[in-house]
Amino acid sequence: MKRPFRLASLPAALLLASAAPAPGLYTPAPGSAERGAIVKVLHHGDDRPAARFTFRTFRVLHKGPRAIAYVQGSGEVGDFEALLEQRGAGPWRKVWGVSDGGSDSCEAGARHYGWAVRLIQGYGLAPDTLIPGITATARDLARMAKTEPELQCVGDLDGGPDGAD
């Protein structure tokens, strides 16, 4: 099951669309080494071009010796979103993700999205600047987890509080 729709109204969507990006937040150019390294992680190290992604969002922020990236798109098996981190000169690694297919409980979703919010805050960034609507999604999932903890309301989860890929 897909995660809950996050935009409640057209005015909210227009506000998000007109918001200026956070200082230091950028999209690596197609074909750049950085973008290639991130995409390779998403392909699980596979260099073959057979599995292609279409990205709707691709954002990176460097903060001292660390970097965080958020990607949202679709691939051969459906829609996905992921957070990746890089520490120093080390490799990028996927630390959080949600994808179509399968399902997880509201309770698991609340933990998963709450963890991502805290991770992004650790970079000194407002979470919604990197992933628009994530704080509302985390809050909604926490509310639903209290009333119906076993209800299946998010897709496949990986990484996050239960461990990275």
Mean pLDDT: 84
Order of strands, widest sheet:
1-2-3-4-5
Number of domains: 1
Beta-strand percentage range: 25-35%
Number of helices: 5
Structural class: alpha+beta
Encode the helix/strand succession as letters.
HHEEEEHHHE
Number of strands: 5
Question: Distance between the terminal alpha carbons, to the nearest Å?
Answer: 21 Å
Shape field: globular
As a percent range, the share of helical residues equals 25-40%
Could you outline the blueprint of secondary structure elements for this entry?
Blueprint: H1 10-18, H2 33-42, E1 54-63, E2 66-75, E3 78-87, E4 93-105, H3 106-121, H4 127-130, H5 134-147, E5 152-159
Helix pairs in contact: 3-5
General description of the model:
The chain has 165 residues and is an alpha+beta fold. The protein has one domain (24-162). The protein is built from 5 helices and 5 strands, in the order ααββββαααβ. The protein has helices spanning 10-18, 33-42, 106-121, 127-130, 134-147; strands at 54-63, 66-75, 78-87, 93-105, 152-159. The protein has a 5-stranded antiparallel beta sheet, sandwiched between helices. A hairpin with a 2-residue loop joins strand 2 (66-75) and strand 3. Helix 3 (106-121) packs antiparallel against helix 5 (134-147). It is globular, with a radius of gyration of 16 Å. The two termini are 21 Å apart.
Condensed summary:
By secondary structure, the protein is an alpha+beta fold. The protein is 32% helix and 31% strand.
